Amino acid sequence: MATRSRSSLIVYIVWMVAFVIAPIVLVVYYSLLDLNGNFTLSNYSNFFSLAYLKMTLTSFWYAFLITAFTLLIAYPTAYLLTRTKHKQLWLMLIIIPSWINLLLKTYAFIGIFGLYGPINAFLEVFGFEPTQILFTDFSFIFVAVYIFIPFMILPIFNSLDKLDKTLVYAARDLGASGWTTFRRVVFPLTIDGVKSGIQVTFIPALSLFMITRLIAGNKVITLGTAIEQQFLVAQNWGMGSTIAVFLILIMVISMLFTGNKMRGGRVQ
Amino acid sequence: MSKLPVSARIYLAVVFVILYAPIFYLIIYSFNSGGTMYTFESFTWEHYAAVFEDTRLIVILINTVLVALLSGLISTIIGTLGAIGIVSLKNQKLRNTILSLNNVLIVSPDVVIGASFLILFTIIGVKLGFASVLISHIAFSVPIVVLMVLPKLLEMNSSLIDAAHDLGATKRDVLTRVILPYIQPGIFAGFFLALTYSLDDFAVTFFVTGNGFSTLSVEIYSMARAGISLTVNAISGIVFLVTVLVVIGYYMILRRADKDSRTEVRA
């Protein structure tokens, strides 16, 4: 068994060195290069300039808003889903939209939020003038929340589903109100699901670039858009790598934060 | 318990409507002869016909499916072997390190994966196109397969392997006759997930695709940036249909696997 397993591990280790370790090393290396390939720390000093700090803060603010709204909608949905009769079927129906290609869903909103789209037509009924909803902060956050909702519902649903119902009954029997039961019993016991939901929302929200390009116009308002801009438009790989290093650091911090869950490799 | 209050039902209904509305909006207007997503003139199949007449689009569709199938297959093989290897490691610390590294690509933002792979391919001289896209898709699918297969391996009773050895099975027999059949549901789940990751990926592909090669996501992006085209709507209609069929297939495989394992336990 041992020798065979060793040989079966080789391909996997090669994969890991080539596509996990090497890319990280390369990104760090490139972040130390200027446009001419000389070693420099100027990318980092640029990153800590006012313009970039402002952009980073904006990106964090948007990611925070997106995560907060997603959680606010997803938690009650997951909670109610666990109480329906055919909950696995309903969960499946919630998950199906997340399987439709991301680009198609985003494209739909170009039509929906457009100047002559259904939302404006609806507003017109109430006497409002048609306005451009596309390319606003509202449309950006709405579409991002829309995209992330199923991914937030799934882990919360799983942790709610595992919750021992007798604990809830016990709390109620002991005189806790519905809200107190939720705040002191249900929510703390499902915090792991909430944490992984936040993890699958927050970091991707920081690095969105497709939705910002299509829905928020051409503004560079997220770290992801900045990376794309530097790599594919400005062709300044050094600066792009520096921003990527920053995103990797945030990711490492979040992995340490939820580290105990990742160990053992059991998802769900 | 199953009787939800009316307000709860309304809440769930609103969430469902919002989740599905954009998809049905796209599909309904894919039948619009008017050419816009605003006023529905009359029913037509012409946009679907346009998809099938556009050879460039058909080539892109074939490319997308080909990349998904190949990357799903290859990453399933690498990931399954990797998971078997990980389980055999006795050193707990090494095992945890490998598992954390395994998760890096799952937690990494797409843009970072795309950008770092772009650097990697440029440095080692892989031409951007089919090969770079396929290799990237294999690369980011491997860890998902590992995560799907690993729990099955961990729940497997090691005395099964010992028994097989005692009964004279070779190492090869143990792998093909004992381990692989047991972890089969995990392998299937991993393959399906790899498939969907590949089909759904935009960001990584966008970085490593180069000029001559395109997948559906990248193509839709460039079409959407140019404005509204009902051909994209027709594509969504087709994608939705295929997705629903795949979901049903996946669900049936899961149920069968579930039933199998249950009857096995009983027997």
Share of residues in strands of chain B:
under 5%
The N- to C-terminal Cα distance of chain B equals 34 Å
Give helix % range of chain A.
Answer: over 70%
The tally of beta strands of chain B, per DSSP, is 0
Order of helices and strands of chain B: HHHHHHHHHHH
Number of helices of chain A: 14
Largest sheet descriptor of chain B: none
Which range does the strand content of chain A fall in? under 5%
Distance between the termini of chain A: 29 Å
Largest sheet report of chain A: none
Classify the secondary structure makeup of chain A into a structural class.
Answer: mainly alpha
Helix and strand content put the structural class of chain B at mainly alpha
Number of helices of chain B: 11
Envelope shape of chain A: globular
- In quaternary terms, these chains amount to heterodimer
- Indicate the low-confidence ranges of chain A by residue numbers: 260-268
Report the mean per-residue pLDDT of chain B as an integer. 88
* Element-level helix/strand string of chain A: HHHHHHHHHHHHHH
Give the uncertain stretches of chain B in residue-range form: none
Rg measurement of chain A, Å: 23 Å
Helix-strand blueprint:
The complex is a heterodimer of chains A (268) and B (267).
Chain A: H1 2-31, H2 42-47, H3 50-82, H4 87-99, H5 102-112, H6 118-125, H7 137-162, H8 165-173, H9 178-189, H10 191-206, H11 210-215, H12 223-233, H13 237-257, H14 259-262
Helix pairs in contact in A: 1-13, 3-7, 3-10, 4-7, 7-10, 8-9, 12-13
Chain B: H1 6-29, H2 46-53, H3 55-88, H4 92-107, H5 110-124, H6 130-155, H7 158-166, H8 171-200, H9 203-208, H10 216-225, H11 230-266
